[in-house]
Amino acid sequence: MSRTHLGMPSFPPFPEAAGAAVHNATLRANLRHATHTIRDRRAVAVAELADWDRLREAGRQIKDHTLRHLDRYLEQLESAVTAAGGTVHWAADADDANRIVADLVKATGEREVVKVKSMATQEIGLNEALAAEGVSVYETDLAELIVQLGDDRPSHILVPAIHRNRGEIRDIFRAEMGNWGRAARDGLTDDPADLAEAARLHLREKFLRARVAVSGANFMVAETGTLIVFESEGNGRMCLTLPETLISVVGIEKTVPTWRDLEVFLQTLPRSSTAERMNPYTSMWTGTTDGDGPRAFHLVLLDNGRTEVLADATGRQALRCIRCSACLNVCPVYERAGGHAYGSVYPGPIGAILTPQLRGIQSEIDASLPYASTLCGACYEVCPVAIDIPEVLLHLREGVAAQGGKGHRMEKAAITAAGWVLNRPGALAAGEKLLTATRALHPKSPPGAGAWTGGRELPELPARSFRDWWRRNRR
């Protein structure tokens, strides 16, 4: 298992997957409607704050400071969680994390788990690992429930089922809910309130029965050992309060030093993600308390490649990410290709820089992700922690080019040849004359340039070169 759990290793490279996705009219319509709606509302919510730029800069500085001193803050976090009655486990990779969680669940004697929406557990493939141990995992976030019932994959950080419309969701509920628990009622419609009620009734019996819950966390406050989850439905709070045992799997980069630091993100995350002034459900817990909430709390701190990302001065800014998904909602590439084309649980611009760093660029799909961008910069403009995604994309492209490959060897040879000609005016003039004289014979797509010319038209060469024009007009 290990770090391959970040996505689907057999998934095709981004250009191939995106090429198929852009021909799916339903997918494109779903994505266009959802992303445009979210980003328009976000723009209004952000414009309400006169100090948004200062909050953005504060978030960047807090994250950078924490990452520079992460070892110290993680030790402080461990001490605080332990003092509050929790138990901390350290997981180097996906295998470690999955083994730890599976052992903790089996120690309770339970064979069912309810789960809060969590990118980290998707990253490590926890659901599949627990299923292999005979443990059933039930997603409780509405969108994650849709994905699970549909035997599907998430395609968005904030709205995992963004690629589905209401009619498709109704059909999934009708066909699959009965196989997982309480069935959808006869005559279920695609009205949002009707669908939400079906999900509520289906999940309620699981909340009341569950003895073990698994969660992630949006933030961890080092000074008190407090974990925080942002959500919009209340299902997460049911998972965090009703079961007897709570197991939280969290990436080490989610740490913030103090409560005062958290205050910044309490303002920027809701506005950047759901375009709300305040998050509807912000759940916080610190260890265990007699008679209130779970009797046992376990925190699994996940590395899974993060310390390697920290070693890269340019790439480490990807670890600032607070998973708001604003970059996905403005990205013209994501809007047309959808999240599945990225072959990872982290889609869109942030996925294009995070996944190759966590997983490495050895595979064809990971080497293709840094090129899944137009470099328009819209992602950087909306990022609430000022991650310069285009800068990291170019940095990663350098790494891909450095490891070679047929295409890069051809590109290097072409650049070398062009440099030789441009440094020799006589050779350049002779080449221009030859190209002008043979312009009728030029192919519309030069050999080896199909990937570039497939979506562009080559300009026609003029009847004479600029050099000739200048010579005649200057005289």
From TrEMBL:
Molecular function per GO = 4 iron, 4 sulfur cluster binding
Q: Which UniProt keywords apply?
A: 4Fe-4S, Electron transport, Iron, Iron-sulfur, Metal-binding, Repeat, Transport
**GO biological process: one example:** lactate metabolic process
Q: Where is the 4Fe-4S ferredoxin-type domain?
A: 318-387
Q: Which residues form the LUD domain?
A: 74-288
Lactate utilization protein B C-terminal domain spans which residues? 399-473
InterPro entries (UniProt xref): 4Fe4S_Fe-S-bd, FTHF_cligase-like_sf, Helical_ferredxn, LUD_dom, LutB/LldF, LutB_C, NagB/RpiA_transferase-like
Give yes or no: UniProt keyword Nuclease.
no
Protein known as: Lactate utilization protein
Q: Which organism is it from?
A: Streptomyces jumonjinensis
